Amino acid sequence: MDTKLTLSLNKTVIERAKQYAKTQNVSLSKMIESYLAAVTEKEEKEKQNTPLVESLMGVIDLDADFDYKKGYSDYLLNKYK
């Protein structure tokens, strides 16, 4: 279901956006809808963990102040002595 949305934008931006939409053979409304969908979808994907990550979460208990980079570099230095 489509719902109307009113936006207040700079007139120059609107005119350039209309020209761009016209060259892309798409309506300005559809172009804005696609942009907003892409932005919010990307944000949602960043929040989600893969099933593998979910299964591994909580497997190791580390101190809150544990330095991951230092811990790994120390491990590598000891391994390749």
From TrEMBL:
Q: List, alphabetically, the InterPro entries matched.
A: DUF6364
Protein name from the UniProt record: DUF6364 family protein
Its taxonomic path starts at: Bacteria, Pseudomonadati, Bacteroidota, Flavobacteriia, Flavobacteriales
